[in-house]
Amino acid sequence: MPAMVTDHRKQPRRRGEALCAAILQATLDELTEVGYAGLTMEGVAERARASKASLYRRWPSRIELVMDAVYRSLPAPGSVPDTGNLRDDLVALLSITAEALHGPAGEALRGLLGEALRGESPLGAIRRNTQGRARRLMEEVVQRAVERGEVDPADVTPRRLDAGQALLRHHFLFEGLPFPDDLVVQIVDEVLVPLLKPARRS
To answer: Which residue from 115, 92, 122 is spatially nearest to 37, judged by alpha carbons?
Structure first.
């Protein structure tokens, strides 16, 4: 007998946030199963039991859809554990980032940058859809350290906030997975803590 095909039009009608959540989850599932190269709007619509029109109304292109799904799946500001000290907070945050790069977020990052380098997707579209969440998470961790008196606010700069996440992404893109077990600790102890807690000035 031929396989049964589910007609999304006969399913209970979903609207608003429920439909959006189903589409974004379907996008993450497709990234995991077929990778970025194999992901299509049609495949996401079928998995989400939604119409293609409902996808395109919200996300004009695959880039927008994938980046929205990935960023919504990442930790939100306020979710990073507060260990009580800067070093352990940084280890916790970068460990979360490393774990994310092992999943759909890493697959999406590799695919999007690959397209951009081949000229198939404009870098501007990727920049427009980058929501700066990694920077905000670092700001949260470092602000807690400032309030505890561990860090001088004058030493907090955008480049220092970006350094740890940038090193993780560099390793991911150029050396691949899995990450060495001690990579996060090395980045924190050898780079971030010295950058954010410099020697006292005389």
So the answer is: 115
d(CA 45, CA 40): 9
- C-alpha–C-alpha distance, residues 133 and 137, integer Å: 6
Q: pLDDT per residue over 107-160, tens digit each?
A: 998 888 888 777 766 666 666 656 688 899 999 999 999 999 999 999 999 999
CA distance 159 to 167: 12
CA nearest neighbour of 81 among 153, 144, 148: 144
Q: Report the b/e string of 73-108 with b at 16+ CB within 10 A.
A: bbbeeeebeeeeebbebbbbbbbbbbebbeebbbbb
Residue 48 is encoded by which pair of tokens?
A: 């989400």
CA distance 28 to 30: 5
The model's pTM is 0.81
Neighbours of 32 (CB within 10 A): 11
Q: How many CA atoms lie within 13 A of 58 on its CB side?
A: 21
Distances (CA, A) of 14 to 26, 50, 73, 94, 186: 14, 9, 21, 37, 47
65: phi then psi, degrees, rounded to nearest 5 = -65, -50
Residue reference for tokens 């589409």: 23
Tokens at 46, concatenated = 């079928």
